[in-house]
Amino acid sequence: IVRIIRQFAAWADEMVLLTDSRKFDIRPRHVVMPLNRIHTVVTDSGLRDQDAAMLEREGIQLIIAPDGEG
């Protein structure tokens, strides 16, 4: 799967990562691509301030998706 994701990334003009905020607490076994290849992260409002700050320092656009309640 890692190889396939890397191939798709090589073809892409822009990478958008959609992830649950809890994933920022997990250390991955494999690094699929460096952060500097990701342009935008879409996640939920559970993202910790330090994780948001890290993404902003890396120049990654951060979008917090609405929680769907209400």
Question: How would you portray this structure in words?
Answer:
The radius of gyration is 13 Å and the shape is globular. It has helices at 2-11, 49-57, and strands at residues 16-18, 40-43, 61-64. It has a three-stranded parallel sheet with strand order 1-2-3, with helices on one face. The mean pLDDT is 89. The chain has 70 residues and is α/β, with parallel strands linked by helices. The chain is built from two helices and three strands. Strand 2 (40-43), helix 2 and strand 3 (61-64) form a beta-alpha-beta unit.
Give the proportion of residues in helices.
25-40%
Instruction: State the total count of DSSP E strands.
Output: 3
**Alpha carbon gap, first and last residue:** 37 Å
Which H/E pattern describes the elements? HEEHE
Short précis:
It contains 2 helices and 3 strands.
SSE diagram, text form:
Elements: H1 2-11, E1 16-18, E2 40-43, H2 49-57, E3 61-64
Parallel strand pairs: 1-2, 2-3
Index terms:
single chain; 70 residues; alpha/beta; 3-stranded parallel sheet; 2 helices; 3 strands; globular
